[in-house]
Design brief:
Elements lengths: L44 E10 L3 E10 L5 E2 L1 E6 L2 E6 L1 E5 L12 E7 L5 E2 L4 E9 L21 E4 L2 E4 L28 H12 L7 H10 L12 H16 L9 H13 L2 H11 L4 H7 L3 H9 L7 H4 L6 E2 L3 E2 H5 L13 E2 L4 E2 L8 H13 L29
Antiparallel strand pairs: 1-2, 2-9, 3-8, 4-7, 5-9, 6-7, 10-11, 12-13, 14-15
Helix pairs in contact: 1-3, 1-7, 2-3, 3-10, 4-5, 4-7, 5-6
Length: 408
C-alpha cells in the first residue's frame, strides 16, 4: 500500500412478538445477532425464556442461551417485554428500543449480553441468565436523536487538539479490564473521535480522501468484522470509531520493518514515555516520510494520543467489533485485533489483558497477514487481500507543501 521505508535505521427487527403476549407463555426464541465466517445469517445465539413466576403485575424468568454456530464468541440476544426491569442476574441488560404496541400490550426490546464469567460460549454450549419485571411501571427512556435506539447523549472528552466524543457515549458494557475510566491505568486513555483525526491524517499521507465514522463502520460490517450482521442504532458509528483507532495505531508501519513487539513498545512509550521517543520509533519503523509529515504539520500529538487509547475501553472490542472473519484458517479477526491489547505491564502485544495471557490463535497468523489486515482498515479494502502495493506512492512525496487533512 505504501512506499517502503528505505532508511538504514535499526529496527482497531427485534422479534415483533412480545415475550409476554400471554401470561402463560413458557418459552420464546430470539433472533440471532451473531455471525461467523461460515454462516451469514440464521440463529447463531438462540435464547429460550421460561416464565417461572408470574403474579400479574410482575414476573420473573430464567433464560437459556445456546451457541448454534461453529465458532466460540461473546453472545448477545434481544428480549421483548413490557414494563420496567426490576432485577437481573448472570448478564448485563439494557433498554434497546422504544415500545411496540399500545396500552397493556406495549412492550420494549431489551438487549442482553453475557456477564464477565459467561460472556463467551463455545459451539454447542449454553449458559443461563434471569430477570424480573414490573408490568405496572414504564422504563425510563434515555434521550436520543435515534427513535429506534435510545442512547445517552454523546459527551465530550478533552484531549489533543480539542474536545472529542467518547466511545462510551454510544454505549458502555463491561467484561474486560480497562473498560471504564477507573480502569484506565498506566497511561491508558479512552477511545474518542480524536482517533478519526489520526486515521484521516494517515489516509491523507497516502493520498486518500478522509473517511467518516459511518464509512469505516459500514466497511467493518460488510467484511464480517463485527458481532452482528446488521448495525443497530449507533453501532455503525461506534464500530467505525473503534476500527479507525486500530488502523491509526498500526497502519503507519512499513512492511519490511513490521514487528508486533514494536506495537507494544510504541504504545507503552506513548503512554508512559516521551513524545520524541515515540517519533523516533515512527522514523525507524514507519513508512518513509510519515514521521516528518506528522511533525511538520503539527499532527504528532493526535497520533500519539491515539496510540494511548485502550482497545478494551467501553466494551466495544468484544461487544460490537468481535470480528468472525477467518484469517489463515487459524484465527479470527477478533484474535488478531488483540495485537494492540497489551499485558498488564504493557510489555507484550497480542494479549488478553483480563487474564494476562497471550491471544494464542493470533500468534499463529503470519506477520505479513497481520499488517495487511490492519492496513486494510486504512484503505477500507479486503481484509484478506494484499494492500501494501494497492496504492501509488503518495502524490506529494516530493512536494514541499503536502495537503493538510480537513478537520473532523
Amino acid at each position: 500500500m505504501f512506499r517502503e521505508n528505505v532508511s538504514t535505521s535499526d529496527r482497531s427487527d427485534c422479534i415483533p412478538a412480545s415475550l409476554f403476549v400471554a401470561l402463560i407463555l413458557a418459552s420464546w426464541t430470539a433472533p440471532s445477532y451473531g455471525a461467523d465466517e461460515n454462516q451469514g445469517s440464521g440463529e447463531i445465539f438462540a435464547v429460550t425464556v421460561d416464565l417461572y413466576l408470574d403474579w400479574g403485575s410482575g414476573a420473573c424468568a430464567e433464560a437459556v442461551v445456546t451457541n448454534n454456530g461453529v465458532a466460540s464468541g461473546p453472545w448477545e440476544v434481544s428480549v421483548d417485554m413490557p414494563g420496567s426491569l426490576t432485577d437481573y442476574w448472570d448478564s448485563e441488560i439494557s433498554l434497546w428500543t422504544h415500545p411496540h404496541g399500545e396500552g397493556d400490550e406495549m412492550s420494549y426490546s431489551w438487549r442482553v449480553v453475557g456477564g464477565q464469567w459467561n460472556q463467551t460460549l463455545e459451539p454447542g454450549a449454553s449458559t443461563t441468565f434471569g430477570f424480573c419485571i414490573d408490568r405496572t411501571q414504564e422504563p425510563e427512556m434515555p434521550s436520543s436523536d435515534e427513535p429506534d435506539m435510545p442512547m445517552e447523549e454523546p459527551h465530550t472528552h478533552p484531549g489533543g487538539a480539542g474536545d472529542f466524543i467518547d466511545l462510551a457515549s454510544y454505549g458502555l458494557t463491561y467484561g474486560s479490564d480497562h473498560t471504564d475510566h477507573e480502569g484506565l491505568v498506566g497511561g491508558r486513555t479512552a477511545i474518542t473521535t480524536e482517533a478519526l483525526l489520526a486515521y484521516n491524517n494517515l489516509r491523507a499521507f497516502v493520498g486518500l480522501a478522509p473517511a467518516t465514522l459511518d464509512e469505516v463502520g459500514a466497511w467493518a460490517f460488510a467484511n464480517t468484522l463485527t458481532n452482528n450482521t446488521q448495525a443497530w442504532g449507533n453501532d455503525q458509528v461506534g464500530v467505525g470509531m473503534w476500527y479507525a483507532m486500530q488502523g491509526a495505531k498500526v497502519g503507519w508501519m512499513a512492511d519490511d520493518w513490521f514487528d508486533p513487539q514494536v506495537i507494544a513498545d510504541i504504545e507503552r512509550t506513548a503512554r508512559l514515555g516521551a513524545a520524541e521517543d515515540v517519533m523516533a520509533m515512527v522514523t525507524a519503523y514507519g513508512h518513509e516520510g510519515f514521521a516528518d509529515y506528522l511533525t511538520e504539520n503539527g499532527l504528532a500529538e493526535t497520533f500519539i494520543n491515539t496510540l494511548k487509547m485502550e482497545p478494551h475501553y467501553a466494551g466495544w472490542m468484544h461487544d460490537r467489533a468481535h470480528g468472525w472473519l477467518s484469517i489463515e484458517d487459524v484465527a479470527i479477526a477478533h484474535d488478531v485485533n488483540h495485537l494492540t491489547v497489551l499485558s498488564h505491564d504493557q510489555m507484550q502485544p497480542f494479549m488478553n489483558d483480563t487474564w494476562d495471557w497471550p491471544q494464542w490463535k493470533a500468534l499463529e497468523v503470519s506477520e505479513a497477514r497481520v499488517l495487511e489486515y490492519f492496513q486494510s482498515m486504512v484503505v477500507l479494502g479486503d481484509p484478506l487481500g494484499d494492500h501494501l502495493s494497492d496504492l501509488p506512492v503518495p502524490p506529494f512525496q516530493d512536494d514541499p507543501d503536502p495537503p493538510m487533512p480537513p478537520g473532523c
